[in-house]
Amino acid sequence: MKQPQIHIFGGTSDARQICMMMDSAGIDYRLSVATATGAQQAADIRGDIVIGRMEAEGMVDYLQKQKTQRVIDASHPYAERLSQNIAQACQKLDIPLIRYIRQSDIDDVEHALIHKVATLDQACEVAARLGERILLTTGSKQLADYVSCLAGKTVLARVLPTAEVLALCESCGLSVDQIFALKGPFSADFNRAFYQFCQADVVITKESGEQGGFKEKVEPCLALGLPCIVICRPVHQFNGEGITQANGLEEMAQLLANFSAIAN
């Protein structure tokens, strides 16, 4: 493989699908993931994998040293700071940036049991009014904030089954009865049985789109009569010189087709 001139940021399922598109097209690239778990989940791609978080200045140095000619930001929809750092680094180096936007299902879901909020604090405020046993399907990154905001409630956390995440759960004071270490994706039937098993009164989730199993999380709540609190995505502005937005995998595939010949 020759020296990759394209760098992808993202440990999401979308990012892995984009990598596989590039593999099929014979395009060389590197993929950045934050953790060893992200690298493990991307083990089947052909591109090089770089592990570790980068701040804005570190990105500038790295991209410059690698002589990167194009960047794809396929990071998590809620990784607002990371996306801002990527955009700043690309603009500083005058590197073209493609920002991949995961398609949203939020407008398809309207129901009295669905509570759409903008922040973690708002989610906790609503959840505290609606029940005692509150199930988080939001990952582990902000677990400590949830536990703090939901003091006095029974917080149930569905998280990835890694030693690092389990240690975080324990450090937040969660008992073995509150930790559910599982890796998705999960079907709607599985989620329905799971919600019943853990006796949740309220479910908190994120607007994670098709790749994040959003509908599979929400539909069982409606079937069971459970309130579901959805933290909506932050509104990103991706305008500026050299920034192209790709809405969904189909648009991303079209963009890849347009520059694959140049990249090779």
Please provide a written account of the structure.
The protein is an alpha/beta fold. The chain folds into two domains: 6-103 and 236-263, Rossmann fold, CATH 3.40.50; 106-231, 3-Layer(aba) Sandwich (Rossmann fold), CATH 3.40.50. The chain has helices at 13-25, 36-41, 56-65, 80-93, 120-130, 143-149, 163-171, 188-197, 214-224, 248-263; strands spanning 6-9, 30-33, 48-51, 70-73, 97-101, 114-117, 133-136, 154-159, 179-181, 202-206, 228-231, 243-247. The strands form two sheets. It has a six-stranded parallel beta sheet with strand order 3-2-1-4-5-12, with helices on both faces. Strands 6-11-10-7-8-9 form a six-stranded parallel beta sheet, with helices on both faces. The mean pLDDT is 89.
